[in-house]
């Protein structure tokens, strides 16, 4: 119902508008106001003129007989308002929507974003956000199902010091390789990327006891439930890691067949064995390991343990070379961003077990401190283990995720991962997808807390601490390195900002809660300080503490290269997005696939839904639906950038052509005694925006490309232009306005001066010829500008430009034909004006002159800027290509890391107590009911958190 | 990723695939010409434009200089008449003044005579619309509905022909005559009402009357020539074609090339006899008569020629400056490359 956790977390639906859209609205309002003011001024002037006209100009005085100057001014005000209202680009909105729509279709049509495996094309569900795709600064990504496929696969292992599975990504599974293993099923194919015939053969030979124990452990030590569907075994695991291990064991011949409350049945190389489960030493986040104590069919008792390397290695018997080689294997696996687990076992003596069992029983019925007692007992049991080996599981990333993130990072887009997962898991993924690199300094909660506190303190108390200094230092570094970026010398940036410390921030939901909501708590803590301070600083500024903390946090977070938030709720995800939007005024994009991302998707400026496994809810709320995370690079770097470029060019040109064409009206008012006499023929005014000038700019808005899609992806730096609003902002608008103003001035005054004392056999500066001349010069200048502006000439562009000219001729011919005049002399009152004027060589020369005068400055500026190499992308590309012959995407997975971090992750998402359920038999009893549901909700997994 | 971009054909057979079309338009891979502003092309176009503009400009200046033009401002000479006429009670009193001028050189070729008015707002909004095109087309229309007001009808209901402020204020200096109006105007825009003769057409049963400022009714504008009388009178037509500016010239007459004027207007002393109708002193207007020959580019107005020369010079100069900048930069670049 609506009170469910998911619905409560959903957030509100908001009407999303792009930054440019909002700016356009503002500009239109500004234009409208300017128009009103202009009309008012002209009207006032007309009022003064009315007086002279009435008194002195005898031929006009009769017209003023019944009106006072004030009335004249009033009428003229409306006259001018109506006359100039054409400058308000209303048709722009319609054209704008059309361009948005077609650009959205381009996204839908893109084959590179079509996911053939599932037959899902990209879908632009919102058709009015395209340009903002080119301005993204922050991406908030979900992890599971977005970055990863949510499929764990067993990649490698190291048994007794020997590494298996080195042969990479051979997509063959045990089924085809191991012909003798009839229990392997087709269904495994997707789950197992592991294939190493040497391991398979070794397993088949069955002569290495360590290997045997290793595989046995994989089949025994877990909490997976099994179901038989027909002849297939279906495993249901609380965590995909465990499932991957069990599946790997199965394909190597050690099949986990069934489980009862206290037995586990396996089939080892075709031999069925039943193990009696004596105890399950459960996992919890402190222990970071789980063990199972079994009695094998021979009656021996063995303890099988798997867990994080740090904990297991402490409890292992030191025994020389194997251990060191295993540790080296661990390091290597970790470098390859695999999730590692150490497996160990030992034999337990009968007597020892008895004693332990009794104590265990006692402890498990304790009423107080049971957990601690049990932990202590487990600790006692898990000692002196024999290290069997290491498994390496890949949390399989979606295709192209690291490359995509790398590209986005190069495009100056910051990627934040917001996940419900545990910190270790999130970090692992962060490393795997190159979000975190080893040269980064990772800030965790404690350091941040200090940092934020100190930041806050510094603003109040001027106290200093090391972290604070470090934080400021980092800030300064960033701004220092940010400067060359801002000045547009992309290519001249330091090849590797090695001197600058890269930082990554990793925080948890609880911590966020503290920062975001418990500003009150901080306030409480501060209050005493404040009181003390009050003595010294009477009436000191009272900053709102809460927002100060928020601000400090956001500042810190945004100064980091990467941010990972783990254990966050859907609401917190949205809150983080909101925070960044609020404090950074940046355009944000949220990408996710599940219901838990809905809130974030709705909050962000642009929400992208991955149409994947977790249902359609995210897609329903999103603005864009993609099938893969990696398509994001194309969506942003290609479609977004083009979209932004197109819309900006469109806006700039549209404003320009409106001003250039129609401002001449204002100048004419100065020469007609401010009487609102229209300069242009009514038909020209009516058709100017729709038929004469709209088409070329539409073709620019639809098809313009500055660089090809391939180049866009090769040079993600080009994306920065959009983030800085470089192509259309108030400055560009003012320049455009001035440009339009000059064009209108020159085309008006060239015609005026040319006609003023002109004598000739035909045109003698009459109103009609003048109107036609100014209109033609303005129109041609405006068309010339779009010809210069278009950088991508397709057939359509040619057609559109020629269509404009043809339509101009056609409509001039039609509206100025004699027949039309005879039918309605008042409506078609320019009969033959164009023909008369434009056949006079003098008029043609006037038109040509104003065309040249208008074009040369624009051409000069373009050429100048291309010589100086400040704005042209082409040059940047050339420069960069020269400097960086190797691909810009650095794949450094196999370069040994400078600072060593081993990232073993016992990253099972289940929590403590699950083993208890098994041993009690609860889950087995409900198995029948569960069998009907495909994805059972396991106790302990919090479904609201993304797992 | 590359393998996925192609939709396998068998998939499309099994079920309607949602795979987008692989057309050049949809994939935004239309063949396109990507012009780049190269230095060479732009510079050459600059020099070309410059050369072209300079040539045109010089031609224009030369041809403008070949024009012989003489302007006779008779505002001051006829100020007495003007004062007389300003008093509206004297509207029907004739006033003549004569201006003598000397032509020092022959004016060869067709000599056109213009009248020039200054500070006369023919482009005034309400003035411009104060006409009835339908009436001038010779149609019987109710001019009450047109914008002609207040020059529509007299008190007794007799409509004015032609109506409106433009016609009313017609600047008339009775002089020679010829066909100077545009063909369009003469044959399309202005038509006399159909009748067996003009006077009956205008004065007949549904009679019209002359506008208040006029001397004579419209059907007496040119009694000698039927085709130049009534609404199709050249003077009326040219006057009705309003000017775009407050200072303007209208073609008035062409000197008939007969007898001693066959080659144009020979040098000598001439006198204009002007019957002064139209007072301009009050709004500080000026009245002029202009005699001018006409070449292909019109008259003596030097503006266009000068503007072309300036533009051409500017374009060439810009070309040189850009070349200079480029050369300087190239030196710098090679310097850096050597380093």
From TrEMBL, chain A:
Originating organism: Turnix velox (Little buttonquail)
Membrane disposition: Multi-pass membrane protein
UniProt gene name: Atp8b3
GO biological process: Golgi organization; phospholipid translocation
Subcellular locations according to the entry: Cytoplasmic vesicle, Secretory vesicle, Acrosome membrane; Endoplasmic reticulum membrane; Membrane
Gene Ontology molecular-function annotations: ATP binding; ATP hydrolysis activity; ATPase-coupled intramembrane lipid transporter activity; magnesium ion binding
Coiled coil: 364-391
Reactions mediated catalytically: ATP + H2O + phospholipidSide 1 = ADP + phosphate + phospholipidSide 2
Entry protein name: Phospholipid-transporting ATPase
Automatic annotation (TrEMBL), chain B:
Pfam families: CDC50
Cell compartment(s), UniProt: Membrane
Residue stretches spanning the membrane: 37-63, 303-327
Keywords, comma-separated and alphabetical: Glycoprotein, Membrane, Transmembrane, Transmembrane helix
Chain intervals for the UniProt region annotation (Disordered): 1-20
Keyword Nucleus: no
Stored PANTHER family: CELL CYCLE CONTROL PROTEIN 50, CELL CYCLE CONTROL PROTEIN 50C
Protein name, as recorded: Cell cycle control protein 50C
Organism: Turnix velox (Little buttonquail)
Gene: Tmem30c
């Amino acid at each position: 119902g609506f009170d469910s956790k998911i619905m409560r977390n959903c957030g509100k639906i908001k009407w999303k508008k792009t930054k440019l859209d909002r700016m356009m609205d503002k500009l239109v309002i500004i234009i409208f106001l300017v128009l009103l003011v202009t009309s008012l001024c002209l009207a006032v002037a007309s009022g003064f003129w009315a007086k002279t006209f009435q008194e002195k100009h005898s031929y006009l005085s009769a017209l003023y007989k019944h009106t006072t100057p004030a009335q004249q001014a009033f009428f003229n005000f409306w006259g001018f308002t109506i006359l100039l209202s054409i400058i308000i680009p209303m048709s722009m909105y319609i054209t704008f929507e059309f361009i948005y729509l077609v650009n959205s279709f381009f996204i839908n049509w893109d084959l590179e974003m079509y996911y053939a495996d599932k037959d899902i094309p990209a879908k632009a569900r919102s058709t009015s956000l395209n340009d903002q795709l080119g301005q993204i600064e922050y991406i908030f990504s979900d992890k599971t199902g977005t970055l990863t496929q949510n499929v764990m696969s067993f990649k490698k292992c190291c048994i007794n010091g020997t590494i298996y599975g080195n042969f990479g990504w051979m997509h063959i599974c045990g089924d085809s390789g191991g012909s003798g293993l009839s229990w392997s099923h087709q269904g495994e194919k997707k789950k197992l990327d592991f294939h190493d015939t040497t391991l398979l053969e070794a397993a088949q030979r069955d002569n290495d006891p360590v290997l045997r124990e290793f595989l046995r452990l994989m089949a025994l030590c877990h909490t997976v439930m099994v179901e038989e569907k027909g002849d297939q075994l279906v495993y249901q695991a609380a965590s995909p890691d465990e499932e991957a291990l069990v599946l790997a064991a199965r394909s190597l011949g050690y099949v986990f067949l069934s489980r009862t409350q206290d037995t586990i049945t396996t089939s080892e190389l075709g031999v069925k064995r039943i193990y009696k489960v004596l105890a399950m030493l459960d996992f919890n986040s402190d222990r970071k390991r789980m063990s199972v104590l079994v009695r094998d069919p021979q009656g021996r008792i063995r303890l099988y343990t798997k867990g994080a390397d740090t904990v297991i290695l402490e409890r292992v018997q030191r025994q020389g070379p194997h251990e060191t080689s295993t540790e080296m294997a661990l390091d290597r696996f970790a470098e390859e961003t695999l999730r590692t687990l150490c497996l160990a076992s030992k034999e337990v003596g009968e007597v020892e077990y008895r004693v332990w069992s009794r104590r265990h029983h006692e402890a498990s019925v304790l009423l107080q401190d049971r957990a601690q007692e049990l932990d202590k007992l487990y600790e006692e049991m898990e000692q002196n283990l024999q290290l069997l080996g290491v498994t390496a599981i890949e949390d399989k990333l979606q295709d192209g995720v690291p490359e995509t993130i790398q590209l986005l990072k190069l495009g100056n887009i910051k990627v934040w991962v917001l996940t419900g997962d545990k910190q270790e898991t999130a970090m692992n993924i962060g490393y795997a997808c190159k979000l975190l690199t080893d040269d980064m300094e990772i800030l965790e909660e404690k350091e941040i807390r200090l940092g934020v506190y100190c930041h806050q303190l510094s603003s109040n108390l001027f106290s200093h601490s090391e972290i604070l200094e470090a934080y400021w230092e980092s800030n300064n570094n960033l701004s220092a390195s940010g400067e060359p970026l801002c000045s547009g010398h992309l290519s001249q940036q330091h090849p590797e900002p090695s001197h600058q410390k890269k930082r990554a921030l990793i925080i948890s939901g609880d911590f966020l809660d503290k920062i975001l909501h418990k500003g009150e708590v901080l306030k409480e803590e501060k209050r005493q300080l404040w009181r003390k301070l009050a003595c010294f600083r009477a009436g000191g500024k009272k900053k709102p503490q809460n927002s100060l903390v928020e601000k400090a946090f956001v500042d810190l977070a945004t100064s980091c290269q990467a941010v990972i938030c783990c254990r966050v709720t859907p609401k917190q995800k949205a809150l983080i997005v909101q925070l960044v939007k609020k404090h950074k005024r940046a355009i944000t994009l949220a990408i996710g696939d599940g219901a838990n991302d809905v809130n974030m998707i709705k909050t962000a400026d642009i929400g992208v839904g991955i149409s994947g496994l977790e249902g359609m809810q995210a897609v329903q709320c999103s603005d864009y639906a993609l099938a893969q995370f990696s398509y994001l690079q194309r969506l942003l770097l290609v479609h977004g950038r083009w979209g932004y470029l197109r819309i900006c060019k469109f806006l700039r040109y549209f404003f320009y052509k409106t001003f250039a064409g129609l401002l001449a009206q204002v100048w004419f008012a100065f020469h007609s005694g401010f009487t609102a006499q229209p300069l242009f023929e009514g038909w020209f005014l009516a058709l100017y925006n729709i038929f004469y000038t709209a088409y070329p700019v539409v073709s620019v808005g639809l098809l313009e490309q500055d660089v090809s899609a391939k180049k866009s992806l090769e040079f993600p730096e080009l994306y920065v232009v959009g983030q800085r609003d470089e192509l259309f902002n108030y400055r560009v608008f003012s320049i455009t306005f001035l440009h339009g103003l000059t064009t209108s001035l020159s085309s008006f005054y060239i015609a005026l001066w040319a006609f003023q004392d002109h004598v000739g056999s035909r045109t003698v500066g009459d109103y009609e010829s003048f109107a036609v001349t100014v209109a033609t010069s303005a129109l041609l200048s405006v068309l010339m500008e779009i010809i210069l502006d278009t950088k991508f000439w397709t057939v359509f562009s040619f057609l559109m430009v020629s269509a404009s000219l043809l339509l101009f001729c056609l409509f001039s011919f039609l509206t100025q034909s004699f027949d039309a005049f005879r039918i309605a002399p008042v409506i078609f009152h320019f009969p033959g004006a164009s023909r008369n004027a434009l056949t006079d060589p003098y008029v043609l020369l006037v038109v040509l002159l104003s065309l040249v005068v208008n074009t040369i400055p624009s051409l000069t500026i373009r050429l100048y800027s291309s010589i100086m190499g400040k704005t042209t992308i082409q040059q940047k590309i050339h420069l960069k290509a020269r400097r960086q012959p190797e691909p810009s995407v650095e794949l450094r997975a196999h370069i040994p890391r400078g600072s060593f971090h081993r990232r073993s992750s016992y990253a099972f998402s289940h929590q403590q107590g699950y083993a208890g359920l098994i041993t009690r038999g609860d889950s087995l009893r409900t198995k029948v009911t569960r069998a009907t549901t495909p994805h059972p909700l396991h106790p302990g997994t919090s479904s609201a958190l993304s797992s | 990723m590359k393998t996925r971009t192609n939709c396998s054909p068998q998939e499309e057979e099994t079920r309607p695939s949602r795979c987008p079309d692989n057309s050049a338009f949809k994939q935004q891979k239309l063949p396109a010409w990507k012009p780049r502003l190269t230095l060479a092309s732009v510079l050459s176009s600059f020099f070309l434009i410059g050369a072209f503009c300079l040539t045109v400009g010089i031609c224009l200046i030369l041809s403008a200089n070949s024009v012989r033009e003489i302007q006779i401002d008779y505002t001051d000479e006829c100020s007495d008449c003007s004062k007389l006429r300003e008093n509206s009670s004297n509207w029907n009193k004739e006033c003549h003044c004569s201006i003598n001028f000397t032509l020092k050189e022959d004016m060869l070729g067709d000599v056109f005579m213009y009248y020039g008015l200054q500070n006369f707002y023919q482009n005034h909004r309400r003035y411009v619309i104060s006409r009835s095109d339908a009436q001038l087309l010779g149609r019987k229309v109710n001019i009450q509905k047109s914008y002609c007001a207040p020059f529509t009808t007299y008190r007794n209901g007799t409509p004015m022909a032609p109506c409106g402020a433009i016609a009313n204020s017609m600047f008339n200096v009775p002089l020679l005559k010829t066909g100077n109006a545009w063909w369009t105007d003469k044959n399309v825009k202005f038509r006399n009402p159909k009748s067996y003769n003009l006077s009956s057409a205008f004065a007949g049963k549904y009679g019209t009357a002359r506008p208040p400022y006029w001397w004579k009714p419209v059907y007496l504008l040119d009694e000698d020539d039927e085709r130049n009388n009534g609404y199709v009178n050249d003077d009326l037509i040219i006057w009705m074609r309003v000017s775009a500016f407050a200072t303007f010239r209208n073609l008035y007459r062409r000197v008939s090339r007969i007898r001693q004027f066959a080659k144009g207007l020979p040098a000598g002393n001439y006198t204009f006899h002007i019957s002064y109708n139209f007072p301009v002193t009050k709004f500080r207007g000026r009245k002029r008569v202009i005699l001018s020959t006409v070449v292909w580019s019109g008259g003596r107005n030097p503006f266009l020629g000068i503007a072309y020369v300036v533009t051409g010079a500017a374009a060439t100069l810009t070309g040189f400056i850009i070349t200079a900048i480029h050369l300087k930069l190239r030196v710098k670049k090679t310097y850096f490359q050597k380093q």
